[in-house]
Amino acid sequence: MSEIVGKKLAARPSLWNEDVEEAYRFQLAGYRDETEYLTVNSGNAVDRWPHNNYVKKLQRKDGRFYYFSRARECLEKDLPKVKLYND
Amino acid sequence: MAAVEAEGFTIKAGMKNSKVKSPPKAGAFKERPAKPTSFRKFYDRGDFPIALEHDTKGNKIAWKVEIEKLDYHHYLPLFFDGMCETTHPYEFFARQGVHDMLEHGGSKILPVIPQLIIPIKNALHTRNPRVICTTLKVLQHLVVSAEMVGEAMVPYYRQILPILNIYKNKNRELHL
């Protein structure tokens, strides 16, 4: 399933992979993807787990912090909520 | 002659036609609700650095302060104390708070181990299956959260293991 969002085409994943996990973590914190996060939090690099490069910590737009586990957090039931954007 | 019911260790029990009643239950598995916890008191006062949200997306706590800057000696035992809680939102915030602090604590966890034993013991002693399951999962997370944590807990086995001994034969479904 896909929909037009502004000038970007967003697709919903049907299978989990690391890109889906990445998008899930950013979208849980209220961002579209890493690009938007770096734009909003100018200069602050994304904190990542060293062993698998998954996102470890994000600062939300209201200043609060979300922390993520080492392992996969996006379950199969969460896949329909994730949006994958193509620039 | 009809059998006569009698209490154990009585003269009547010694009669030929007596049937001794089974002993009363000792209450080993009877749930013992915990006292109001410090976690609940601090949470209600708003002393925790966690944001209260009513429309939480997913199962996450939004922290007001970075976990790396928290005083683990003060906060980690308080969150562990909240494991006795069974009602929302205390149960959720205690469980998720412990998870986040253990996941991101690193070397700050080991010095706090002695202060965690009493809350762990209190949670296990509630005899509540849901609380015991949560506590066991927290113990699993604790021992892998940092180096030497398992070894640090050895002196405290005598406080934690007896309650687990009661449940060692309970291998069927828990029906939570």
Structure notes:
The complex is a heterodimer of chains A (87) and B (176). Chain A is of the alpha+beta class. Chain A is built from 2 helices and 6 strands, in the order ββααββββ. Chain A has a domain at 17-75. In chain A, a hairpin with a 5-residue loop joins strand 4 and strand 5 (65-67). Chain A is globular. The two termini of chain A are 18 Å apart. In chain B, the strands form 2 sheets. Chain B has a two-stranded parallel ribbon. A two-stranded antiparallel sheet of chain B has the order 3-4. Chain B has helices at 38-45, 72-81, 90-103, 113-124, 129-145, 149-152, 157-166, and strands at 4-6, 18-20, 50-51, 62-63. The longest helix of chain B is centred in the C-terminal third of the chain and has 17 residues, at 129-145. Chain B is mainly alpha-helical. Chain A binds chain B through residues 28, 56-57, 60, 62-67, 69-70, 78, and chain B through 51, 57-58, 60, 62-67, 99-100, 103-104.
Strand content of chain B: 5-15%
Can you count the helices of chain A? 2
Radius of gyration of chain B: 22 Å
- The largest beta-sheet of chain B arranges its strands as 1-2
Q: What oligomeric arrangement do these chains adopt?
A: heterodimer
**Helix segment count of chain B?**
7
The percentage helix of chain A is 10-25%
As a percent range, the share of strand residues of chain A is 15-25%
Q: Termini separation of chain B (Å)? A: 47 Å
Order of helices and strands of chain B: EEHEEHHHHHH
Spans of at least 5 consecutive residues with low confidence of chain B: none
Q: Could you give a short account of the major beta sheet of chain A?
A: 3 strands, antiparallel
- State the end-to-end CA separation of chain A: 18 Å
**Which class do the helix and strand fractions of chain A yield?**
alpha+beta
Q: Any key phrases for this structure?
A:
heterodimer; A: 87 residues; alpha+beta; 6 strands; disordered N terminus; B: 176 residues; two-stranded parallel sheet; 7 helices; 4 strands; elongated; Meiosis expressed gene 1 protein homolog (chain A); Meiosis-expressed_gene_1 (chain A); Hsp90 protein binding (chain B); Parkin_co-regulated_protein (chain B)
